[in-house]
Every structure is written in structure tokens, then in C-alpha cells.
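Researcher: Please translate sequence to C-alpha cells.
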Amino acid sequence: MAFLSRLSQRCSPGLLASLAGALLLTGCAGQNFSSDQLASLQPGRSTMADAVQALQAVPQQVLPQSDGSTVALWHFKVSVVTDAIYYRKEAILQFGPDGRLARVLDTTNVPLSGATRQKLLGAASIPQETPAPGEAPQAVPAGATAIPLPLP
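Model: Translation complete:
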């Protein structure tokens, strides 16, 4: 309360009203999660419970897949003045039919080092280019996996 009384003595009533209005126009969606420990997860070993503990929040969505795996989405968004200024953070993790982390499908505003990102994302897909007429098709390098992506 001492802070508020000092603030009211130093600021004009118009500024205080503007600050109060800005706070009223601030909104959030989802549950904030801690991305600090995402790097501690290990594909093939970590479970959903491990992910919940590491991220310190339950996922907003858990989507069962036809192959028995699940995709879990952690999402948090804070906006000021109805999306004029916003911050969003997401982590999308895929768990295999055995309940263990298969890989991190995507992240937004989650800082990860290059090696950690590669460990969690798994093998990157190699884009398949259509050869020009008369050219031989390019082979996928040994050890690489080509993953077909759905068209929009």
C-alpha cells in the first residue's frame, strides 16, 4: 500500500487513470508454464508426468492420435489492448503409445540451445524436390528420414 500512496502523490490523476485502464485491457489465455526445464526432458525416457513437472503446468490440450500416441500443447498468451501488443509462448510435445516423449514437435518463444533443440526435435525432414525434366531424382542421404508433410 505504501507504493500506491507514493505513486498517487507523484503522478497526475490522468496518468493513474491511464495505468488503471491499461491493466483492465490486459488479458491472458492459457496457463503460464516454465520453459526453463524443457531441456531436461529426454526423448524415449521422459513421460507426460515428467513434462508436467518440468514445465510446472498441465497442458491445455492433449490430442490422442490414431496410432496410439498423443500430442500435448502447452500455450500461454498475454495481450494488452486486445492483441495490439502480445506475448505468446508454446510447446508442443509428442508422446508415443508407450507414454514416453517421442519428440518436441514445435516451440514458440522457448529458448533452447542448438544441440538441445536437435535432441528434442529429432531428425529433421529432408525436403523432397521434384527434379527438372531430364534430371535424375536426388536420393535421400543415408541415415536421413524423409517425412511427408500434409498440404494445407
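Researcher: Any highlights?
Model: The chain has a mean pLDDT of 73.
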